[in-house]
Automatic annotation (TrEMBL):
<dbReference type="Pfam" id="PF07929">
    <property type="entry name" value="PRiA4_ORF3"/>
</dbReference>
<keyword id="KW-0614">Plasmid</keyword>
<protein>
    <recommendedName>
        <fullName>Plasmid pRiA4b Orf3-like domain-containing protein</fullName>
    </recommendedName>
</protein>
<dbReference type="InterPro" id="IPR024047">
    <property type="entry name" value="MM3350-like_sf"/>
</dbReference>
<feature type="domain" description="Plasmid pRiA4b Orf3-like">
    <location>
        <begin position="7"/>
        <end position="181"/>
    </location>
</feature>
<dbReference type="InterPro" id="IPR012912">
    <property type="entry name" value="Plasmid_pRiA4b_Orf3-like"/>
</dbReference>
Length: 198
């Protein structure tokens, strides 16, 4: 018989971008902040090529199991995201910021929309329920760089800059398109490859 656990519905919005880029996802209380990082990477379409951290109610949680980037952190005040379960930090009134790529500075605001206790059901599945717009390309230069990118591609599509950007991101990039099936397929691959099906 499965134990009861908390299931959370989170609304996650990329800050400093208009119109908004956001995802609504479900996660489960026994999961760790590190797993939430991987879920967010898959849900948004990031490539997990950079460091990350979470700021939750004034505390910082980060990836402390690698040497790269540790000099950017106050290690005396930073907690390990692998050792922190979501049910210990997620509450409806929590203030949560997820930062990805310290150079580009992608900040995501996480809001707990719903918490429910699940009985007699196996845990381990996260899903993307909804969302809007495509994830910006990696290394585009943060919100300001993405604005420049979009301006070149949309407003001056025959310019040298627009041609360069299209070659860089490929012909299929559509800033207004969010593919929920692809996001959930990425989550399924992660579940199979990274943390296993439970």
């Amino acid at each position: 018989m499965a134990k009861s656990f908390q299931r959370y519905t989170l609304h996650v919005q990329l800050l400093h971008i208009e119109p908004p880029i956001w995802r609504r996802i479900t996660v489960e209380g026994p999961d760790t902040l590190r797993k939430l990082h991987h879920i967010l990477q898959a849900a948004f379409g990031w490539e997990d090529a950079h460091l990350h951290d979470f700021l939750i109610d004034g505390k910082t949680y980060a990836q402390l199991d690698i040497d790269a980037g540790l000099e950017l952190m106050d290690l005396a005040k930073t907690l390990d995201d692998r050792k922190t379960k979501l049910n210990k930090v997620l509450r409806p009134d929590s203030h949560i910021i997820y930062q990805y790529d310290f150079g580009d500075g992608w900040y995501h605001r996480i809001v707990v929309e719903n918490m429910e206790t699940i009985e007699d059901e196996a845990w381990g599945e996260s899903r993307v329920l909804d969302g809007a717009r495509a994830c910006p390309p990696e290394d585009v230069g943060g919100p300001r760089g993405y604005e420049v990118f979009l301006s070149a591609v949309r407003d001056n599509p025959h310019s040298e800059a627009a041609t360069h950007y299209r070659q860089w991101v490929g012909p299929g990039f559509d800033s207004e398109r969010f593919d929920i099936r692809a996001a959930n397929a990425a989550l399924m691959r992660l579940a199979t490859n990274r943390w296993g099906n439970r």
